[in-house]
Amino acid sequence: MNIIRHLTRRALGLAALSMALLSPGLQAQDKPPLKILVGFPPGGSADVLARMVADALRDDFGTIVVDNKPGAGGRIALNMTKAAKPDGQTVIILPSGPMVLFPHVYKKLDYDAVKDFTPISQIARFQFGVVSGPASNVKNVAEMAAKAKTDPTSASYGTPGAGTLPHFMGVLLEQSASIKLNHIPFQGGAPANNALLGGHIGYKFDVVSETAELHRAGKVRIIAVTGGQRDPQVPEVPTLQESGINMDATAWFAMYGPAGLSAEALSRLEKAMMKMARNPAMKEKMVKLGYESIGSSSAELAAAQKTDLDRWEKPIKATGVQLD
Q1: Which of 24, 43, 92, 99 could be bridged to 81 by S-S, CB 3.0 to 4.6 A?
Q2: Per DSSP, what are the bridge partners of residue 157?
Q3: CA dist 261 to 96, 116, 266, 270, Å?
Q4: For residue range 291-321, what is the model confidence (pLDDT) as tens digits?
C-alpha cells in the first residue's frame, strides 16, 4: 500500500509539472492585460498611434487593451492614469499638449504634469508648417515679416481656436521674429482651412502632414517648418532657423505611467518602446503618418517635457489665455 501511495503521489507531481511546462499560457493569463489609456475618441491620431504601439508590444506583453476615455482634452484619461496602481499594468499615450501647455493655460488643473506621472518614452515627434494662402501670397518668411510690418491687416492667421497649439505657435513666431500677427480663432481646423483657401486670412499654422498635399498641389504654400530640421514630407521647405528666425518648436506623443512606477515595470516598458522605435516596419508606419519615430528613454522624455514646459510659458502668458 505504501508503494502504491508513493507511486500515486509521484504520478500526480509529474502531471502537475507537465501541465506547468506545457501550458505557460495558463500562467500568463493570470496576469491582467496591459491597459493603454487614450484620452480621445477612436479614430483620432492618438488612438491610431496607441493601437500601432499595442500591436508592436504584444510579443513582449501578451494581451494589451486600448481603452478610450475621451473628454476634457485628455484630462479624464490622465486622472485615471494618475489614480492607477504603479505596477506597470496601466499607462497612457497622449500628445504633448496636456503635459506642457495645460499647466500654463488652465487656472486650476486636477493633476500635476510632473509630479503625478512617470515618463516612460517619447514615441513620435511632428512639426508644424507656417502656411501662406492666396490672400498673402508670400513665398518665404522674410516676405511674411516685411509684409506684416508694412501692412498689418494682411498678417492674420487662423487656428482651430484660442488656447490651441497653433495659436501659441503664432505667438512664439511673433516673439521670435519681432513681428505682429493677428490671431483669428475658428471652431476647428476645417473652418480655418476654408478661410485660408478662400482668401479670408493670410496664414495658418498646421501639422505638416495635414497640409502637405495642398502645398504640393499649389493651393497653399508651406513657407517654413517649425522644427530644428527639414520635414521629409516637404524637403524643399526650409526650417524657421534656416530662414533666420531663432525658433525650434515641435509637438510629440509619449507614454506615461502613474507616479512611483516600479523600477522593474519602468525598465520593461522603456526597453520595449526603444526596441519598437528601431523596428524598420514601425519607422515606415510612422513616416506615413507624418511622424518621426523617437523611442526615447524615460530620462530623455522627462528632459523634453521640461524644455517644452519652459518654452511655452512666455508665449502663453503673452496671450492672456486662462481657462477654467
Answers
A1: 92
A2: 183, 203
A3: 20, 10, 6, 12
A4: 999 999 999 999 999 999 999 999 999 999 8
